[in-house]
Amino acid sequence: MKKAPRTIGTFREFIKNELTGLYAVKEIESLTYILFGDLLNIPKHEIHLQHDRLINVDQGTKIIEAVIGLKSFKPIQYILGYTEFYGLKMQVTPGVLIPRPETEELLKWIVDENPSGNITFIDIGTGCGCIAIALKIHLPDSRAYASDISDTALMIARENAKLHRADITFFDHDIVSKEEGKRKKEKVAYDKSAEIKQEFPDIFKQKYDIIVSNPPYIPESEKEYMDKNITGWEPFEALFVPDQDPLIFYRNIGEFGLQYLKFNGKLYFEIHEKQGASIKRLLQEFGYSNVIIGKDINGKDRMIRCHKKKIQIP
Questions:
Q1: Residue 81 CA: distances (Å) to CA of 154, 160, 295
Q2: Three-class SS of the chain
Q3: Same domain, 118 and 237
Q4: Same domain, 188 and 55
Q5: Residue 66 in contact with residue 39, Cβ under 8 Å?
Q6: Could you report the per-residue pLDDT of 148-186, keeping only the tens digit for each?
Q7: In this structure, are 279 and 302 located in the same domain?
Q8: N or C end: fewer C-beta atoms under 10 angstroms in the chain?
């Protein structure tokens, strides 16, 4: 890599030269503003007005390390160590899925339909905890639970919950194999990062008003058409499902809901834009009612909601 210069202007040129051919021109410009703003705390207007402002050695090192990451298609969110979700700062690291704008739209749908907030909900496959934390903050009277199979995800989710003072019970659970945690209960229950001890929560003693999930839903065959900054860095198990069984998580969560969702409780899912009809049919076969497919800002089918019907007694 070329030796980096020492002013804002020459560093801008350095970033441009290193990333040209790997990223689009507008994306390079956007990344430049992000690097100066987030890593060095230099506002956008100063980047233009203080072209000759000197960059010290430590600042230069941060820029160089970030550019090295970008050249290997490392997502900018992993480089910064955080992303924004529904107006909240969320820590993210490699091994944890980066939240997308579509998930914010799913969250808004839930908040808009449940204004009272006096509910019990569970977020299955919580990742960095973004859905559960944002829901808890916007519905402060709710009782919040969240699960994941990934140790890394649970660690980051707990740290994010602590950062936002969101009272959420996190636990290790595999919704597909139905295992109540891969580890011993006492290890799951002690969170060293938060210095909190608690009893291992028994999700099978709860009844939920809402079950929400952004599960893996991308068929493995689509991987070859996706960007390298996704396929090369984000966790495979949080993104992809077998081509022969793309609805595996919807089926298992749907079955979970039949037993643990309250009558007239709601299931909310983020979905693949091409799977809406199949998931709707699956949920209807389970006996769920009022199955509605929601569209994102681009008019694509990206979320779905249904109710658990109360059993009719003849």
A1: 16, 12, 30
A2: CCCCCCEHHHHHHHHHHHHECCECHHHHHHHHHHHHHHHCCCCHHHHHHCCCCECCHHHHHHHHHHHHHHHCCCCHHHHHCEEEECCEEEECCCCCCCCCHHHHHHHHHHHHHCCCCCCEEEEECCCCCHHHHHHHHHCCCCEEEEEECCHHHHHHHHHHHHHCCCCEEEEECECCCCECCCCCHHHHHEECCCCEECCCCCHHHCCEEEEEECCCCEEHHHHHHCCHHHHCCCCHHHHEECCCCCCHHHHHHHHHHHHHEEEEEEEEEECCCCCHHHHHHHHHHHCEEEEEEEECCCCCEEEEEEEECCCCCC
A3: yes
A4: no
A5: yes
A6: 999 999 999 999 999 999 999 999 989 988 554 443 333
A7: yes
A8: C
pLDDT at 32 over 50: yes
290 HSE (CA, 13 A, CB side): 11
Neighbours of 28 (CB within 10 A): 19
Q: Do residues 96 and 68 share a domain?
A: no
The first and second tokens of residue 31, run together, are 């990344």
Tokens found for residue 210: 């809402």
Whether residue 47 sits in one domain with residue 99: no
Q: Domain boundary at 72, 100, 126, which?
A: 72
Alpha-carbon distance of 169 to 147, in angstroms, equals 8
Q: Determine, yes or no, domain membership for 91.
A: yes
What pLDDT, in 10s, does the model give residues 64-122? 999 999 999 999 999 999 999 999 999 999 999 999 999 999 999 999 999 887 899 99
What is the Cα gyration radius of the chain? 22
Q: Are residues 95 and 175 in the same domain?
A: yes
pLDDT tens digits, residue range 237-282? 999 999 999 999 999 999 999 999 999 999 999 999 999 999 999 9
Number of residues in the chain: 314
Q: Which of 159, 162, 167 has its CA nearest to residue 141? A: 167
